[in-house]
Design goal:
membrane; 6 helices; alpha/beta; six-stranded mixed beta sheet; transmembrane; 6 strands; transmembrane helix; 213 residues; single chain; Rossmann fold
């Protein structure tokens, strides 16, 4: 009788267990993973962002502000010390992370896709949106480790934006052209103003030196 009673309790609890498992499983599947490549590098120094790249890194914050569904709770950036040293992914998301008050995780190197995918899979359930910034040559393989068997080709475009959710991939764009041009103008203006101030200081110091001598 005790055995039957225990079995009855188990049978009674199976629907509840299944329901709980389904909720957990669906929550894990519904996690949104956003992928971008590093912003544009400088033409003469590939370890720094160009003016356009800096503007894009700033405009990523505007992208999030305009679409809260893209707001990440965790940001992963490719570790700079891979096969080739490249700090660009990290620099691309620095401004966004500072605005969102999120610490960037950069412990994974460019070819550690499987380890990164496993880490994302085992994140706490309350982490619903994750942003990854990687070099373009590894993104397709990275997406495959996230469960997308036949991803499209990642075009050589810095404006690309992929979203992996519910085992599906959405191929879209950041659409930041107007923001980038506006921010570039601001950055140029700020640089010019700084240069002018520096020039005035130098003139002041020069005449002060003449006066004292």
């Amino acid at each position: 009788m005790k055995f039957l009673r225990n079995n009855n309790n188990l049978i009674f609890n199976i629907p509840l267990i299944s329901f709980i498992f389904t909720i957990i499983f669906e929550k894990a599947l519904s996690r949104k993973i956003i992928l971008i490549q590093n912003a544009e590098p400088d033409q003469h120094d590939s370890n720094i962002l160009s003016l356009t790249g800096e503007a894009r890194s700033i405009c990523l914050n505007e992208l999030i502000q305009n679409d809260e569904s893209l707001r990440p709770q965790i940001i992963y950036a490719q570790n700079p010390n891979g096969d080739v040293y490249t700090p660009l992914p990290l620099k691309t998301v620095n401004y966004l992370a500072s605005q969102l008050n999120i610490k960037i995780i950069d412990t994974f190197k460019e070819r550690q896709q499987a380890k990164l995918a496993s880490t994302i899979e085992n994140l706490p359930d309350d982490i619903e949106t994750v942003l990854l910034c990687w070099n373009r040559y590894q993104i397709e393989l990275l997406v495959k480790t996230l469960g997308i068997d036949n991803p499209p080709t990642w075009n050589d475009g810095y404006d690309n934006l992929w979203i992996v959710e519910n085992d599906n991939l959405k191929d879209t764009t950041q659409n930041l052209g107007s923001c980038i041009e506006r921010v570039k103008a601001d950055l140029i203006s700020g640089t010019s103003t700084l240069s002018l101030k520096t020039f005035h200081i130098m003139i002041f110091v020069f005449f002060l030196f003449l006066f004292l001598n």
